[in-house]
Structure formats: structure tokens, C-alpha cells
Amino acid sequence: MIGRDVTKAANLLSQGKLVAIPTETVYGLAANALDPNAIAEIYRIKNRPSFNPLILHVPNWEAAKRYVTHFPIEAEKIAQHFWPGSLSILLPKNNIVPDVVTAGSSQVVLRVPNHPLTLELLNRINFPLAAPSANISNTVSPTSADHVKNGIGNQIDYILDGGRCQVGIESTIISIENGRVQILREGGISQEVILKQTGLKISVSTEKTVQTPGQLKKHYATQKPLYIVDSISEYLKENPTQLCSILYYEKQSNSPTKYSYFLSKDYNLSEIANQLFAMMRLADQDSTDCILIEPIKIEGIGRAIDDRLKRAASN
Fold first, then answer.
1. CB-CB contact of 232 with 246 (8 Å)
2. DSSP string, 2-69
3. Which is more confidently placed, 163 or 221?
């Protein structure tokens, strides 16, 4: 069932049920983060690997402090600027957080989502929500209630409909160690914005171990092959018998196929991020053999788009 009844969603979650919730990034599959049985249901429905941890969603940064052993000054500075918002922080957890949430890790990822319905929901309940994307693991993330309904809607009790997601890709995840801020997953807030707003030095982690969500090599995948090609026109010339859908970063006056999807009018990176998963879904549903896209500009939120495309692409 789809609706906007926050009270219904809160009651179901309090009973250990699962509810899909809207955020500004993507829709999440939410459960009481302090209930191991409810968390196990998230992993079951998503077919999610048990070593892939979850993010805790809380109503504010004061609430976040209840679930960690300490909240460093750098985390406070970042939270003041970006919570609510599309940025998650990896911190040492306290014992109240079940190990199943963190896949056995001693650290937990927290964020305050920037969506009015979900913030209202979080302020009505007395527990945090674990909420990975509301879809089968390694498939394209949902950015509307209908995406959730068409994917896992028959397996959950309620979808809280908050409209289309405003950002369209998952949150940036950072860690803080000895005053050093590292990006573990590129996302809705770019390195440049974090630096500009906080003055903190930012580096990108090269750690290969899965510490947080979104670090699996294969992720966000369409059912048909998605290829990142240097030149769409050259690829089509070399493969004349292949029927391809094309994702363009800006409006084209002449497109070689009717199966063309425009992510932006004028190569606006925020607009591209907002449209990416929805257009990938549309291209995946048409009658073509594959999906083509060229490399994105590696700047700002373009790094997060590049990350999603590379994890979705077929070898």
C-alpha cells in the first residue's frame, strides 16, 4: 500500500514491520535499527550480503550521539553544515546498536535525511531507522514510490510516498580519524562543497574492504548490459546491428535512435544526478539490447555519478 500516513508508518515500524521511506537521495527500506529480527528482514527482502552494513537514520545530530561512543569535533562541524542532508558519517558505535546493522563492524554510519515526511516520522518514534535503498541488492536504486512498488512492493507493509527524490543518488559517506576526513563513498554532497563549507581537508579512501554501503564492485546494475563508451557515435558505427538505448548528459538536436534519454538540458550535473536512476530504469525497460553512455565530467557531484555508472557497467 502507498500513502502519506506518517502515523501508520510509525505504528508499523514500532511493530517490527518494514516500511519504505522517502529521502532526498533515494527511497529507503526502513526498519527499527535496534530490532535484530526486523534488520534480518531487510537483508532477506533485499537479498543483501550479510557483510554489507546499513546506515542509521536519526532526526538530528543530538540523537546521533546516543548511538556512538564519541562524536568528534570534526563530525560536529560537518553535521552543523550538512544535517539534515545527503552526507553520512562513519563513527564508533556503542553497544546499543546491534552488530547485524554494522555487519559485525565496531563502527556505524549515521545520517539525518533531508525530507519533511521522514523527519516527521523520525521525530515520532523512539528508535533510529536502518534504511538501505528500497530495492533488491545490486539493482538500480528507487527514486519514486512507484519504483519501490514495482520492485519489492508486494513484500512490505507500507510505502510512505514523499514524491520524487530531489537529489537522486545516495549520500556521501565520510570517516573521521585523528582529525582527518576521508570520503568512503562519493554521493550527493561533493568534496568541493564540504571543503568550502567547513574548511576541513578532504581525502578519498583507497581502502578496498567493504566498510560502508555502496562499496561493492557491482552495484546499481540494470538487467541489460550498460556500456560506458568513449564515443557513442563510433560505437554505433562499429556495431550497426545492435539496438541500443542511449543516455545523453544534455539535450541533442539529432539523435541516431528513438531510444534516447536526456539526463539534463545543458549538462547540469545536479540535474543529471537527479535523473540518472530514473532514466536508467526507463532504458532498461525498452526493447533494446543494451544501454550506452559516455564518461561523465569528473568534478563535483560528477564523481558520484561516475562511481554509480562504473559499478553499474558491464565489463
1. yes
2. EE--HHHHHHHHHTT--EEE--SSS-EEEEETT-HHHHHHHHHHHT--TTS--EEE-SSHHHHGGGBS
3. 163
Q: Copy the grid coordinates of residue 6.
A: 506518517
CA distance 78 to 194: 8
Mean pLDDT confidence for 156-179: 95
DSSP symbol at 233: H
d(CA 131, CA 137): 13
| pTM over the 0.85 mark | yes
Q: What percent of the chain has pLDDT over 90?
A: 88
What is the tens place of the pLDDT at every residue in 101-117? 999 999 999 999 999 99
* DSSP-derived 3-state class of residue 236: helix
Those residues whose C-beta lies under 8 Å from the C-beta of residue 87, and which sit 6 or more positions away, are 78, 111, 171, 172, 173, 174, 187, 188, 189, 194
Per-residue confidence (pLDDT) for residue 253, from 0 to 100: 80
CB of 156 closer than 8 Å to CB of 131:
no
Return the C-alpha cell found at 210.
Answer: 567493504
CA distances from 178 to 181, 202, 241, 264, 270 (A): 9, 13, 56, 40, 32
Catalogue all structural domains in the chain, each as residue range(s) with its CATH number. 2-204 (3.90.870.10), 226-312 (3.40.50.11030)
